[in-house]
UniProtKB/TrEMBL annotation:
Annotated Pfam families: Serpin
InterPro entries, A to Z: Serpin_CS, Serpin_dom, Serpin_fam, Serpin_sf, Serpin_sf_1, Serpin_sf_2
Name of the featured protein: Serpin family A member 5
UniProt xrefs under SMART domains: SERPIN
GO CC annotation: acrosomal membrane; external side of plasma membrane; extracellular exosome; platelet alpha granule; platelet dense tubular network; protein C inhibitor-coagulation factor V complex; protein C inhibitor-coagulation factor Xa complex; protein C inhibitor-coagulation factor XI complex
């Protein structure tokens, strides 16, 4: 009998996010806590977040890109709990973990701490992160895996009759829609009749810009998708003091736009023809440099209102980062179930973001399907009227994307 296990990650961020505040001292203090390589594992060396971005961008160079690094990373970390041998090693090394004694435990403890911290009540914005496990008794989930999901990843558990695929699909999608305040609906389009488990990870984020853009200042302007392709977009504008850095080495300008609460949006504008150079230069080191080098500048900032989406089959992308066995007949997921012939057949990540005068709305979802084998000082204009990059950070990188066409 062929059985399936889905791992679904949902990430949602409505109006805004601001990590590094307007005060330079506070900005420098906050950067010390930024986990950009794999979100939570301090022993990480590889830039999983940016390696994944580059892999996603390479699949469609002229398209918009948007995804949730923390969502994908937590999904893989949960998956590693049930993996063994080289399957586990590939996942952990793909995340950038140094496989030294205690580092794996540190990874899971880091995510556990992240879950606890992000679910604390906070002023100015909403941010919640959680997991759920839908299981059918036929799968025989190991007690150790179930316990780890509950204790380390604070997962809710739900008995599910996967024999009724229509009912199971509705149960899961209704849960996701509720947890994301209706932003992610119909996360799963279908379930195989032999599906036995679905793991869900969601994050909901809602905030407003610390200083909103005035609707009256928004005007239609040109956006240069390429030198030959120009589209008209509603361009927001606001003059204020922003943290700003001109990176001459990478040929880009970076501005941090704070949200109410404790999150920040970073907008990165490459010089003309330098997008790939900037993309290739994205790293933990680069991001830390930007935050350390930020200085307050009086800017007349122009940002387009935009809404973009991304949808990715990660089972086709993650092997480029060394995570491949789990999607093949060589998968070892013996820590998940007593069935020895289980593998991941599909891992889907969907994300969207909307930016307007009041703030940012963003949502993302990742589904993994398992199956049994069968600048200058002073005021200046900064106009984002050509392709640019965007990050939303709150000590961790919640979202990362490229706006090629608003």
């Amino acid at each position: 009998m062929q059985l399936f296990l889905f791992l679904c990650l949902v990430l949602l961020s409505p109006p805004g996010a601001s990590l590094y505040r307007h005060h330079s001292r506070e900005m420098k203090n906050r950067v010390k806590d930024l986990h950009v390589s794999d979100m939570v594992a301090p022993s990480s060396r590889k830039d999983f977040t940016f390696d994944l971005y580059r892999a996603l961008a390479a699949t469609a160079p002229s398209q918009n890109v948007f995804f949730s690094p923390v969502s994908v990373s937590m999904s893989l970390a949960m998956l590693s709990l049930g993996a063994g041998s080289s399957t586990k090693t590939q996942i952990l090394e793909g995340l950038g973990l140094n496989l030294q004694e205690g580092s794996e435990e540190e990874l899971h403890r880091g995510f556990q701490q992240l879950l606890q911290e992000l679910n604390q009540p906070r002023d100015g914005f909403q941010l919640s992160l959680g997991n759920a496990l839908f299981t059918d008794p036929v799968v025989g989930v190991r007690d150790t895996f179930m316990s780890a999901m509950k204790t380390m990843y604070l997962a809710d558990t739900f008995p599910t009759n996967f024999g009724d695929s229509v009912g199971a699909l509705k149960q899961i999608n209704d849960y996701v829609a509720k947890q994301t305040k209706g932003k992610i609906v119909d996360l799963l389009k279908n379930l195989d009749s032999d599906a036995v488990m679905v793991m869900v990870n969601y994050i909901f984020f809602k905030a407003k810009w610390e200083t909103s853009f005035n609707h009256k200042n928004t005007q239609e302007q040109d956006f240069y998708v390429t030198s030959e392709t120009v589209v008209r977009v509603p361009m927001m504008s606001h003059e204020d003091h922003y943290h700003y850095f001109l990176d001459r080495n990478l040929s880009c300008r970076v501005v941090a736009v704070p949200y109410q609460g404790n999150a920040t949006a970073l907008f990165i504008l490459p010089s003309e023809g330098k997008m790939q150079q900037v993309e290739n230069g994205l790293s933990e080191k680069t991001l830390r440099k930007w935050f350390k080098m930020f200085r307050k500048r009086q800017l007349e900032l122009y940002l387009p209102k935009f809404s973009i989406e991304g949808s990715y089959q990660l089972e086709k992308v993650l092997p480029k980062l060394g995570i491949s066995d789990v999607f093949t007949s060589h998968a070892d997921l013996s820590g998940l179930s007593n069935h020895s012939n289980i593998q991941v057949s599909e891992m889907v990540h969907k994300a969207m973001v909307e930016v307007d005068e009041s703030g940012t709305r963003a949502a993302a979802a990742t589904g993994t399907i398992f199956m049994f084998r069968s600048a200058h000082v002073g005021s200046q204009r900064l106009v984002f009227n050509r392709p640019f990059l965007m990050l939303i950070v709150e000590n961790n990188i919640l979202f990362l994307g490229k706006v090629n066409r608003p």
